[in-house]
Amino acid sequence: MKQETASRGALGTLFGELKEYRTASVLTPVSMIGEVVVETLIPLLMASIVDNGVNKGDMNHIIRIGICMLGLALAGLFFGAAGGWFGALASTGFARNIRKAMYTNIQTFSFSNIDKFSTSGLVTRLTTDVTNVQNAYQMMLRMAVRAPFSMIVAMIMAFLINRRIATIYLIAVIGLAVVLFFLMNRATKYFKMVFKKYDALNESVQENVSAIRVVKAYVREEYENDKFANAAANVYNLFVKAENNIIINMPIMMATIYAVILIISWVGAHMIVQNELTTGELMSLLAYCMNIMMSLMMLGMIFIMITMSTASAQRIAEVINEKADIVNPGNPATEIPDGKIDFNHVNFAYKQGDGEWVLKDIDLHISSGETIGIIGGTGSAKTSLVNLISRLYDVQEGSVCVGGRDVREYDLVTLRDEVAVVLQKNVLFSGTIIDNLRWGDPNATEEECMEACRMACADEFIEKMPDGYHTWIEQGGTNVSGGQRQRLCIARALIKKPKVLILDDSTSAVDTATDAKIRKAMKEFIPGTTKFIIAQRISSVENADRVIVMHEGAVAGFDTPENLLRTNTIYREVYETQTAGGGDFDMKGGDN
User: 204 and 235 in contact (C-beta within 8 Å)?
Assistant: First the structure.
């Protein structure tokens, strides 16, 4: 019952995306009905030609009816072509609207919404699932109307011609329908299982392609090949099981058709001899027999397609109906006065109600324009802390304020425009360098972009490129080094001239001297901006106004670097380890 309710809800969601293609969706079955009417009339005219033309030697009747048949054939061609055109228009347009609705809604998702759907799962829903729904919808508009209508009309015409022979049709149809339903029902369960395996297959491909350099560096090609082969084999095996149930359909169908034809021919011949049936009527009955049987076979295939698409429709509807966890408040504030940041006894968890706080009782107060360093071991929630500033997640307890107001009171676009983030994973998009830089400010002039690149120390390698700032960046920035990507991402953030700038371990791929130049340039270029520098290197934070020391989701220290060196065990251990040449290390425990 729940499954049926979910299916109806999913179909209701999807059909709401028909919009401008409703007319084409109506004209498709209308055209199919017109084609069926024409096909139904042609056997009657054939019978008339045989009985009243050939048998009576009436050439004028043959010509006259022949012209009518030609006209009907042309009409059938027109209706068939119209049905195909309108069906393609409606189904492809329907699929386009569904993809657009999904993609548009995904753009509104908060990080917690995205966490519910794997990337590979979203890709499958946007591609394979939508294609299944598109194909099923086109088949529904054409065959799901044509097949039953054709079968019913042909059956009626057969009964009008001769009830005795039509009864043979009816018995054959009922028996064949029972067999086909049994076979299709067995195949359906396998088709439902296939889509879960598609996600695993796409995940394997996506993970391998995105991490191809790591795969090659560790010579794991054979392992990845085996992993993909197993995922592909799972899909293959399920399809084979489904097809093994379906493959017997055709032999059963053809055997039934030929058996019915033989029976009708034998019965019909006796009836012709006894003048109970004409030759033309027998020919019409044989034509209707083919129509009925082929229509029944088409209905079986439609049943499979609709079953497959129902699972896809439910998966698509989940994405379209997903509500963003983070939305604008009523009458949101649209101006942020400065970069003052306050964490007021904040408690935060990614999954509500699991009893595990990621951030525990965070109480920090930062003045506008300060440079704040953040250090801590892996898993100490450094990134989780700064994610709350731009409201990528909402806190469960306490509040985060920017410019003296709770971030939940601001318009999301306003807030995120004034909080620039350079993430750990530096992302560039396909396009020129200047295109990527203007993600920070679409209206930035080329001179402003060049100035930001000088601040980020990116100008030195850009000017050596053949096309300079108009050099093409491949998808993901694969044609530039890790350090170059980091500097371009920093320049992109600087172009925004935000009130708050967050550098999340974003200078890890540049040398210490370049790191120092970037920090000095930022201090001069955006002095009024509040800057957060998350780093593993002590050199990146030792010149900050104050440093936050994180440990297991809590603040273990917050003071100037000089004071922390004297009073904080964690900070002192990191400092002594790195300055002694031991390199970065993952801090363990510690107290003030």
Answer: no
Across residues 193-198, what is the average pLDDT?
Answer: 68
Q: Which amino acid is at 302?
A: I
pLDDT-derived band at 587, boundaries 50, 70, 90: very low
User: Given this model, what pLDDT does residue 278 score?
Assistant: 84
Q: CA 297, CA 250: separation in Å to the nearest integer?
A: 8
Q: Tell me whether residue 266 is exposed, middle or buried, using C-beta atoms within 10 angstroms of its C-beta: 0 to 12, 13 to 18, 19 or more.
A: exposed
C-alpha 32/C-alpha 198 separation (Å) is 34
- Report yes or no: 293 and 260 within 8 Å, Cβ to Cβ: yes
> What is the per-residue pLDDT across 88-99, written as a single tens digit (0 to 9) for each?
999 999 999 999
Residue type at 539? S
Amino acid 449 reads C
* Helix, strand or coil, per DSSP, at residue 366: strand
Task: Give SS3 for 412.
Answer: helix
DSSP string, 499-533: SEEEEESTTTTS-HHHHHHHHHHHHHHSTTSEEEE
For residue 206 the two structure tokens come to 């996506």
Task: Report how far apart, in Å, the C-alpha atoms of 32 and of each of 3, 173, 417, 547 are.
Answer: 31, 22, 54, 73
Bridge partners (DSSP) of residue 559 are 547
At residue 347, the 3 state secondary structure works out as strand
Q: What does the alpha-carbon distance between residue 217 and residue 569 come to, in Å, rounded to a whole number?
A: 38
Distance between CA 102 and CA 399 in Å, rounded?
Answer: 32
Query: Residue 84, class by beta-carbon neighbours within 10 Å (0-12 exposed, 13-18 middle, 19+ buried)?
Result: middle
503, 531 in Cβ contact below 8 A?
yes
Pairwise CA distance, residues 413 & 432, whole Å: 25
